[in-house]
# Entry
Amino acid sequence: MPTLEERARFVTDFARRLHLAGVSAARLEGAVQSTAKSIGVECEIWSSPTGILLSLGEGGDAGASQQTRVLRLEPAEPNLSDLIALDEIAEQVIAGRLDVVEASTRLRALDRPADSKQRTWTVVAFGLAAAAVAGLLRTSWTDIGVAGALGLIIGAIAVASRTRPHLAAASEAIAAIVATVLAAGFAHFIAPLSVQTVVIASLIVLMPGLSLTTAVTELASGQLVTGTARFAGAMVVLFKLTFGSVAGAQIVSALDWVPQTAQVLALPAVIEVIATIAAAFSFAILFRASRRDVPLVMVSAVMGYVITRFASGWFAPSQGVNFAGAVFFSSLVMAALANLYGRVARRPGTLVRLPSIMLLVPGSVGFRGLASLMERDYTLGMETGVAVLSALVALMAGLLFGSVLVPPRRYL
# Structure
């Protein structure tokens, strides 16, 4: 039996890497506690978007002294390839096929800095996601092209900010200023453009829709401190994006640019199909899915969107009630399928659950609402805020009820 120190070191590193893989608080705490229990470690854990607190002791010995570990961490983005590796290591440790010393060595092997190829693919994913969202809105060919080009620029800013802490704090506001000014400049000097649509599409990856959804789900799961902190962080990102957009509009006004507004064209329906597939592929890149899991991630994202589109005809809004029934149904079905996949394939259900809700999260709608409030259009701002709240509640309820129908495998 390894010493308590060796087992505690493994549990601590395992918790840290789950956080870096973007696992939510409730799932992280459950996975860490179940893994610690399997190797005879009594573990009390508290996690937040910016840190983890661990109390570790010998299992079955109530009078034993405990070790306390405090980890200060930065908020992390989903990393599906690392999550798969962590799940495989934990599975082998729980089954007794891998001792904690060797497991700790394999955890350290996951440390690898982002290379130039990965950074390039990330920038490409930003541009692809932006063009895809513009295509889903079916505005015009010009809007799609400009949104894709701006997405590449925003992606370059986001990648550059990861190694520059001072730039990272203001990166969302800078990105919104750049997107707004360049879109307005294109519409003034070159060709008419749906400026607001293009700006939203180009910033779509930075929109904190997933963070808002995770925060509300954590609050509903009893993770009150963590959910509140994550919700506050997501709102701050929305504030930065809104400020940047408004500041960009002021710069455009100071330069006396008058953007030409494009007429909305009815693009062929096949554009929506292509855009959905392109968006799904961009999610696979942004979530760092391994090559073998790219098809699964893409199919999950497309299924979530398609189910929502079909269900929208079944859940027509009733008089005086604003409830996103289609979003609820889609998230419920996909959450149940994700947990079923996890149980059958013995792999994390996150591979299915996370991509499936990405085209449903209300980040861009929240941005529109805040922008309307900043422009003193309070009626539209409040109506948009209610729509955001409705979507968040529907998503949260669907994810929770899906887990009731099919319980998850080891939390992940």
Summary: The mean pLDDT is 83. The two ends are 27 Å apart (CA to CA).
